Amino acid sequence: MAKFEKDFLLGASTAAHQVEGNNVHSDYWLMEHMEYSQFVEPSGDAVDHYHRYEEDIRMLAEAGLNAYRFSIEWARIEPEQGKFDANEIEHYRKVIACCRKYGVEPIVTLHHFTSPAWLIRMGGWDNEEVIPLFAAYAKYVTEQLGGELNYICTINEANMRLQIHALMERFKKQMMAKMAAAKSLEAEKKPEGMEGQVQVGLNLNDPMERMKLNAMENVKVFGDPQPHTFVSAAGENGDEIVCRAHKAAKAAIKTVRPKIKVGITLSLHDMQWIEGGEEKAQKEWEEEFTHYIPYILEDDFLGLQNYTRTTYGPDGIVPVPAGTPMTQMDYENYPEALEHCIRRVHEELPEVPILVTENGIATGDDAQRCTFIEQALAGIERCIADSIPVIGYCHWSLIDNFEWQKGYALTFGLCAVDRTTQERFPKKSLKLLGSYR
């Protein structure tokens, strides 16, 4: 086993809403607590990282890791439009100081899926007003905390809204086909394998009637049956708004602290194809990655996030063959995908350093996670040997946490948690990852 160079950023990632708990001013908190919520359970106290961050950062450092990617929660910083909470800024100042105390490089993400509820009531991520509002938030955070930061990711998985749009279009088509074929309750079951086509925890198990009731509740809470949260379907206009918000935030950060390295993260699949599927695979890659190049060409790094591959045939996505090892997220267990994505990104964006900001596996078998890590990191080593500028790897995730609409059943973490006592139980995979330094 090779070890990475001393300056290589080797660490783990979390997202504020998934680990902190009680993010009461966010859109997700409200959606989780609806009577007809699409979330299988609310986030609640999560894993109480808000109060236990030092315990978790110390655990990460003692395992040998030197980087921690985490997000600052916009809804905490600006719970009401234009009103910033100095106490919450002080909290994140302490988190950053804690990282420095233990020799860990803090890699901050300014937006990781959740948004202030007031923003969504304004039209959310389909309203162009989000661009200056997000830039103002980025500027404030940088003014307050930027002196201790070297890396900022503006937006997590900026392409997620297009991925959700494509998924929902496929979902609607399959649902219509099923309902036409069988006028029964069976027609309302989710198409098999659909949730595994997007790299976020979605729940498509709800029957159509419950979805309708949820839409009615959305009107009461947000003023819109389909509120434009960050993890909702968006077309070209919504996608462009996200890209412009990134550029505006980057400009605001650089105005305050020019030396901070700023990038964005993208959710990428290893696009493969069988005979007749190359054109569809190339089209999907263009939508998932290539068309973002003009917006990220001058960034200081790209945050690359990959979990699996997708294979295309002449009729679209090819189902995973029966018997293929799968993860709890209904993804194919395919760690080789990370190397393939790194190489393809580098071909099209050769001058921009790559920071792997998420890569991991949802499994209850930590031996399987260890094997996944070994194979993924072997791919990174080969890329570095070929002079591809990979500057770091942050595993998803540091700790088992709230996987969005899927709740707490899925386990991505290098550390388990007893959520009754909030006691931490580091897994062998954490020690394994740290041994690469």
Automatic annotation (TrEMBL):
Its EC number is 3.2.1.21. SUPFAM superfamilies: (Trans)glycosidases (SSF51445). Signal peptide: none annotated. GO terms for molecular function: beta-glucosidase activity. It comes from the Bacteria. GO terms for biological process: carbohydrate catabolic process. It is an enzyme of class 3 (hydrolase). The keyword rRNA-binding does not apply. GO terms for cellular component: cytosol. Gene3D superfamilies: Glycosidases (3.20.20.80). Keywords: Glycosidase, Hydrolase. It holds the Pfam family Glyco_hydro_1. The active site is at residue 358. Belongs to the glycosyl hydrolase 1 family. This is beta-glucosidase. It comes from Waltera intestinalis.
